[in-house]
Design brief:
Strand order of the largest sheet: 5-6-4-1-7-9-10-8
Strand content: 15-25%
Mean pLDDT: 91
Low-confidence stretches: none
Radius of gyration: 22 Å
Bound molecules: glutamic acid
Structural class: alpha/beta
Largest sheet: 8 strands, mixed
Helix content: 25-40%
Shape: globular
C-alpha cells in the first residue's frame, strides 16, 4: 500500500520501528514502564495485521552503566564495544520479556554494515528477517557493536533501520526519538516550526538539521535521521520521525499524526535501491559539466568527462560521483581501479586503448550500476 500520512502507517503491511537509547535507558537503568507500553503497541499492531520489526538501541548505554564506564560508554571504540557486549544481553532479555507478556517471541538479530553492503550477505539477512516474520516472531535488530570497527560501523541505528526496512521490504519506518521531528530551525529558537511533510531530502532540508546534535545518549542526531530518510525515500519507503517519550508512543504517533514524515520519492528496483543505500564509499570521481548533463539524462559515466579521481580503490568499488563544484551526483560501482581511472581520465575511447594497452570497457561507471542523488 502507499503510505502517505503517518496514520497510514497503522495500515502498513510491514513496519520497522526504531527506538533510540534515550527512550530505553534512563540513568543507566532500563525504562521498563515505557518498554512495556511499546510492547503493548506492537502487539496491537500485529493483531491488526501489521508485521513489526524493532530496531533497538540502548546496548551501549545499558552496558556502560553496568561496567561503570565514563561518557555513557562512548569515550572510545573499545569502551563502546565492551559496553555493547554487556548491554546487548540485557537488552535482548528485556525485549524477550516485554514481548513475551503478549505471547510474542522476540528474535535477536545483530548486523554489521558489512552484512548489508555485500549483496549476498544482504540477501541472506533479508531471508532471515522474512523467515522470522513468517514464523510469527518479532525481530529485534541492533548493530553488532562489539565486533564492528570504527570504519565499518553504521554508528547510528537510524540508518541501520532504513537499511533493515529495505532488506525486509517494509513499507514504512518509524523513528522514535526524544524530539517531535524536524524543525525549520533549532527547536529552542523562538518561532521554530515542526515540518510535517518532506518530499525529497534536499540540501535545504539537510541545512535545517543544523549541527545535527543529539540528546547525548545515542549517536543518531537529526543528521543521521535525514540520512536514513534519504535511504528510505529512494527505496520507496515512507519514514517518519516522531516523539517516543510518552507512554504508548507508537499508538499515539499513529493516531495523532504528529511528527515529520518523509514521503518516498522514487522506487528504484531492488538492486539499485540496495546500491543507493550502501554506505562504504571508497573514492570520489569528479566529472565535468557536460558529463553532469549526460548523467542526469541517464547516461553512463565515460572517461572523457572524468576530471579527477580521489582514493585508492579496486575495480568494483563503490565510489561517490561529484560535479565540477564538488556537488554530489550519486554513487556507483566503478569498472576500473583508481590507477586506471587516473590513466584514462579525460581521454577519448581511442586514446584510452593506447594508454591502457588493452581494449577499454564501455564505461567508467555503467548506468546499470549507478544511482543518482
Ligand atoms: N547500537 C547502539 C546501541 O545499541 C546505538 C546506536 C545509536 O545510538 O543509534 O547502543
Amino acid at each position: 500500500m502507499a503510505v502517505n500520512t503517518l496514520q497510514d502507517m497503522a495500515e502498513a503491511k510491514r513496519l520497522v520501528v526504531k527506538i533510540g537509547s534515550a527512550l530505553l535507558v534512563e540513568n543507566g537503568e532500563p525504562a521498563l514502564g515505557r518498554l512495556r507500553t511499546l510492547a503493548a503497541d506492537i502487539a496491537k499492531l500485529r493483531e491488526d495485521g501489521t508485521e513489526v520489526i524493532v530496531v533497538s538501541s540502548g546496548a551501549i548505554a545499558l552496558g556502560a552503566a553496568r561496567l561503570g564506564l565514563a561518557k555513557g560508554g562512548r569515550a572510545n571504540l573499545a569502551d563502546a564495544q565492551a559496553a555493547a557486549s554487556v548491554g546487548q544481553v540485557a537488552l535482548a532479555q528485556l525485549w524477550a520479556e516485554v514481548l513475551g507478556t503478549h505471547d510474542i517471541t522476540a528474535a535477536q538479530m545483530l548486523v554489521t554494515i558489512g552484512d548489508l553492503e555485500d549483496r549476498r550477505r544482504y540477501l541472506n539477512a533479508a531471508a532471515t528477517l522474512e523467515r522470522l516474520l513468517e514464523a510469527g516472531a518479532v525481530p529485534v535488530v541492533n548493530e553488532n557493536d562489539s565486533v564492528a570497527t570504527e570504519e565499518i560501523r553504521f554508528g547510528d541505528n537510524d540508518r541501520l533501520a532504513a537499511r533493515v526496512a529495505q532488506a525486509a521490504n517494509a513499507d514504512a519506518v518509524l523513528l522514535l526519538s526524544d524530539v517531535d521531528g524536524l524543525y525549520d530551525r533549532p527547536p529552542h529558537e523562538p518561532g521554530a516550526a515542526l515540518i510535517e511533510r518532506v518530499e525529497g531530502v534536499t540540501p535545504e532540508v539537510i541545512a535545517m538539521a543544523g549541527d545535527g546534535s543529539s540528546s547525548g545518549m545515542g549517536s543518531g542526531g537529526m543528521l543521521a535521521k535525514l540520512q536514513a530518510a534519504r535511504i528510505a525515500e529512494r527505496a520507496g519507503i515512507a519514514l517518519t520521525i516522531a516523539n517516543g517519550t510518552a507512554d504508548h508512543s507508537i499508538a499515539q504517533a499513529l493516531a495523532t499524526g504528529r511528527g515529520t514524515m518523509f514521503l518516498p520519492v522514487r522506487a528504484d528496483n531492488a538492486r539499485k535501491s540496495w546500491l543507493g543505500g550502501r554506505q562504504a564509499l571508497e573514492g570520489v570521481l569528479t566529472v565535468d559539466a557536460g558529463c553532469v548533463a549526460a548523467l542526469s539524462d541517464g547516461a553512463s559515466l565515460l572517461a572523457p568527462g572524468l576530471i579527477e579521481v580521489e582514493g585508492d580503490f579496486e575495480r568494483g568499488a563503490l565510489v561517490s560521483l561529484h560535479g565540477p563544484k564538488g556537488e554530489r551526483l550519486g554513487q556507483g560501482l566503478v569498472e576500473y581501479s583508481a590507477a586506471e581511472c587516473r590513466a584514462i581520465a579525460g581521454l577519448k575511447q581511442t586514446e584510452q586503448e593506447a594508454r591502457l594497452g588493452y581494449a577499454p570497457r564501455a564505461a567508467v561507471v555503467h548506468r546499470d550500476h549507478m544511482v543518482q542523488g
